[in-house]
Amino acid sequence: MSGSAITVRFATADDCPLLLRLIRELAVFERAPDAMVATEADLRRHGFGPEPQFEAVLAFVDGEPAGVALFHTRFSTWVGRPCMYLEDLYVCEPARGRGVGRRLMARLAAIAVERGWGRIDFQVLDWNPARRFYERLGLAHVGDWLRYGGDEGALRRLAAEDEG
Questions:
Q1: Looking at the annotation, which residues are catalytic?
Q2: Would 164 be classed as within a structural domain?
Q3: What is the CATH number of the domain that holds 94?
Q4: Is residue 133 part of a domain?
Q5: What is the pTM for the complete model shown?
Q6: Which residues neighbour 106 within 8 Å (Cβ) at sequence distance 6 or greater?
């Protein structure tokens, strides 16, 4: 990493094309490129509109895009306060191993501390080698919890049962 300057800053609406590019790269890395259907307009509307649903920080190495961390808040009833949910962390392949991921995670930790958020939560694919990286940062796998969710079709089917 010597000689390389890593900078991290909050994304702005002007960064939507870059955000979309990095999210697409992440989808390819996660072996699910066809599952990524978000558009630049979606990111602009939901991240930089009147009621932002997410924030993002971008990393650059010597001025070149090197990574992204996209996050939003969630509320923990157990902690009794808001927490950070890390939706996506991605470091571009040429920047891996240069401290970019660590800088992004340090920035996220600083944001959480500044805002009084109780913890950070995220998910990692079981085959992702980044799991060792997270463990080196002191972040632990919560082994007893299983992820559940429903896509739009499942939500529509269930919503059709709502009689209220």
A1: 134
A2: no
A3: 3.40.630.30
A4: yes
A5: 0.91
A6: none
Count of structural domains, the chain: 1
Asked if residues 25 and 81 have their Cβ atoms less than 8 Å apart, the reply is: no
In this structure, what is the dihedral angle of CA atoms 45, 51, 151, 132, given to the nearest 10 degrees?
90
Question: Per residue in 81-119, pLDDT tens?
Answer: 999 999 999 999 999 999 999 999 999 999 999 999 999
Q: Supply the range of the domain harboring residue 137.
A: 6-159
Tens of pLDDT, residues 31-69:
999 999 999 999 999 999 999 999 999 999 999 999 999
CA distance 133 to 109: 15
